[in-house]
Design goal:
This protein is of the alpha+beta class and 456 residues long. Helices cover 43% and strands 18% of the residues. It folds into four domains: 80 residues, no CATH class; 92 residues, Sandwich (Immunoglobulin-like), CATH 2.60.40; 104 residues; 129 residues, Glutaredoxin (3-Layer(aba) Sandwich). The protein has a five-stranded mixed sheet with strand order 13-12-11-14-15, covered by helices on one side. Helix 2 packs antiparallel against helix 3, helix 3 packs antiparallel against helix 4 and helix 8 runs antiparallel to helix 9.
Amino acid sequence: MRMNYWYWVQRFLLSFTFGVIAFSATCSTSKGFIIKGKLSEYGAQSKVYLYKMLGYELLSFDSTLHKLGVFEFKYAAALPRGFYKIGFSKENSITIIVSNENISITGNPAIEKSIMVVGSKENDVYAAYRKYNEAQQKNTEAAQQEANQLSQQPGMTQALFDQAVIGIRSRLDSLNSIHRKNIEQLIQANPGLFITKVMAMSLPKSNVTIETYFTKEELSDPEYAAGEMIPSKMRVLYQYMLEQDITVWKNTTHFLLQQAADSSDNKQVIYLTMIPILSNQDIDYTRQLANAYVSEYPHSSLAQNLKKQLPKGAPTIGEIAPNIILTDVNGARKSLYEMRGKVVLLDFWASWCGPCRGENPNVVRAYQEYKDKGFTVFSVSLDTNKEAWLTAIQKDGLVWPNHVSDLKGWSTEPAKEYSVRGIPMTYLIDKNGYVVATNLRGEALHLKLAELLSKP
């Protein structure tokens, strides 16, 4: 009970924290505006940069030269309104709301309390919102500290703690209620502002389920994607509402991706948020997710970079199959990439593997049926005995010419690169070298070959 209660406290606090960072929207008005100011501690930097946000990512948007820290951005038409960062670098920048208002900024980006933003109602309300949140965070931290001190008192039992913490909980509930009323008053007093939409999203909702946790608008309207709104709300969902089970997390991720608008910024933010998290739990699934991300957003450098950062593992469907170069039964070098233009079954097997030998007749039948239509087999043996390998090829009638091995067994490099942990292990590769299926057995192999080889 002690742990569950304070998890609730943290969840409540987080729900007010995520909204204060950033998100972007489209402004309907078209008049021009100026962002100007003077920033100190510029060092050797000759420019001031304006960044937009996509989830946790900062995207370079604009830059201007400064003179002794004095700068000006001048726009003839509206920008997508929302949170931006401005400063001398991504690391040395502050958060502002751009909403087609003239803005004046002064201070040192490295010292938050030194920053003054004037001339903007959006930023004035944003400052008030932050002030309320900071005060409530101090209240929550004080309650947590008081509870920790209670739990460490000599002779403290669970029953005594549960009784003593009722008073702390009651005070915090009262403070939470006051905090909510303050935010609601800000919302009511400032209709139509961008920050009003941020505040409304941050308020905790009652009777929420996994299916209703995100609204349709939050997963389709691009205003909610340009900043930490969606990632922070997801953090609360995964840490405090979901069972701490990788299958549940994967199913929820799949659900959210299905609900998000196709090719939207919102969906991209879900990919950007979950791929790093899930990579520590299930790398093969995460790499599939990264492939889906790159496929849906082929021009996104964020997608490409995120995929490159993932640990290497078995190639997944949609990826180019890594090349394999080994010697064949006659000692000649053979390359998997030489098979380009054909549909290839890459088959990891061994003469000593009973299931492999049991599946071989099916592979032979598939080869005989489809070899004249552009199909072949590339067999990589994990044998260590050449005579046993050759005997098995002859006995099982494996008549295709592409048999390779370095006779190192499980230590062969291709097995490591393809994360082979058991055999038979197969990859079906299309004419362009992409993996289209894995571990097809029996009739499933024939059905897939018929589908692939019927295409022009």
